[in-house]
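From the shared-data thread, chain only:
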Amino acid sequence: MPTTFLTGPSGTGKTTYAVERLRELLNGNVPASSILVVVPQLTLAQPYRDLLRDPTLPGAGTVDILTLNGLALKTIDLFWPLGAASSGFGRPHDRPVFLNIETAQYYLWQAIEPLLNQGYFDPNVVPITISLPRLMSQILDNLNKAALIGLPHTQVGQRLAASLTVEPSSRVALEHTQACVSRFREFCLARNLLDFSLRIETFYQHLWPVPGVRQFLTGRYRHLIVDNIEEDTPFAHTILREWLTDTESALLVNDQDAGFRIFLGANWRTAQTLSDTADETINMTESYVASTDMLDFGQRLGQILLNRMPKGRRTTDDGRQTTDQSPISQSPITNNQLPFTFEQKRFYPQIIDWVIDRIAALIDEGVSPSQIVVLAPFVSDALRFSFIHRMQRRGLAARSHRPSRPLSEEPAAKAMLTLARLAFPHWSLLPEPFDVAQTLSQAIANLDLIRANLLTQVVYRPNYQLPITNYQSPNLLKQSGSPLTSFDQIEGTVRERISYEVGDRFDKLRAWLENMQSEADTPPVLDHFFSRLFGEVLSQPGFGFHGRQEAGEIVANLIDSARAFRRVAEQSPIEVNADGQNEAAYPTVDQLNRAYLETINQGIAAAQYIRSWDLAPAADESVLITPATTFLMSNRPVEYQFWLDAGSSGWWERIAQPLTHPYVLAADWEEGRAWTDEDEVFAQHDRLYRLVMGLTRRCRKHIFIVNSEVGEQGYEQRGQLLAVLQQMLRRMQRTREE
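Structure, as tokens:
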């Protein structure tokens, strides 16, 4: 079979075509082990997993479904001795240690802490005030993007400074960034730590060129199916271009007007160059999702956005030039055809109430809650709480999905972390009373925050001093104690105000925490502790996580996070002072647990957990609220969409990142060319264009667009999405009047 380049807008059946190609290969007795399915992120692999569950499919072996990063990791692990020495690792005879985003931030902090203590990024020197998690995120982002475009990590600061118009003091910030990038790379090489960027460089520069390694991969995987190539990176496109000459068949699937992962290094332009390698190109145009009216609505909005772009740069993904005089849609939309509803309110809470009223009406009409999604450029804590709380008061189920949110900010995870600090007070990490009250309200069913605060005041002793305990020495007797006192010791009317039922559940929780402290000579590792705490207490009737799917999902992610951290950190010796001498020793359980708690409480970015993207059966009965880009990357259509806060600038402006730049650190950016205001305006309009086209093509029936004159932050709303929508409505009004 030839190499096929399959392209078309979302909803035209491209992934279905690819799944059927996989079925055809397996039914044709092609060995399953010779087939590789490549996706930009594993959350997009669900259609292929569903097919492979079919027990009637033939085929020997297993079809591998991987990202190119996952393939690089497996290859490095298998062929480590071939590339370890040439890559410059300090311990080439030891095994590699692979880092995820969370452990990478942990080691990055260790690497750059001396620089920060020396005054790097001091606000008195550089005009940038940035939190530690954001600083670490942007440093890693620079490393990752450099690896993906083949730029040496030592040239990141130079490339940014050459293209960004910055003041001398801002150039100092870029110099500091470069120093941190270089320090972290040296730190990783010395300890065999492979973050994302080092995996990419090791694979592409030191293993892929080795004839035996390349022949092993291309000889094993003779058939490639690559989905959503527009969401993948220049590194992936380069590997595929070199690989395709050795395949028996290949299918490349491209989604037009997409490329939503640009901030993660995706490049839809380098993806489209792969069409030159194809023996045939199939262009799919008929939508199986959106109606003609919905597509027409999206195209009208898209045309206005294209016409607002700087002249000479108005092109769509298939290269069509657009002009003000050649609208895409020719037939006028009548009132009876309108696939959208626009609603404006004065204040932000009013639009939430309006949206929930419409959702309740749709569900009463028989619409499945899973076919309704509420979208916003960002889903803040206040928005999430307000929406879900009001939905619950109406008896309507709702859930949220915010994959980039730090685990430490999730209420369920924060409760687990606080309980761990209470269970082991010898760590000297006792929480604040407010955090304890929040935790008790989460952990005990039907306990409101007012009574939780009262309970905390009478049972929590934050200044409690536990006798010094050494879990690691068998010569010292372990002593027990707890900063929590029993509810039975409370006297007077306070007992009745809190209620005996709540008090009984609190005592059960307290007793369990004390047993965990006293039942073993050494404390349990945190992932085991979290697993037992959830299974034995918090998921049981009468406790806060019983029957709460979203809480269980978050706890499962926390357990995975703690386990991954432990397995990495326990392999890396730490410096300890023994008898005045610095020696390397492997961390103890206590040191691992403390390190994890301190790291996660910094608010580091969370790793990607696939279970958070997969729809569980219970999710079919709940309405989803999520950021618009997250919804697009889940790649699933729904019947009804609600666009919140249409006047927000978040729909089109990129997140401020003063120490990195997704467009300058792109494969096709001309090195040294200045990033201008025109470039920024074009990028903003292009982002909003792709967002609008992606959302309308994933909606079957109707879109409700809502806006408040005064936004969530209390300011007047004048964003571009609102302006474009108003311009389209004025055009429609003139058409009706004519």
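The chain has four domains: 3-73+202-283, 100-191, 335-404+611-737, 407-602.
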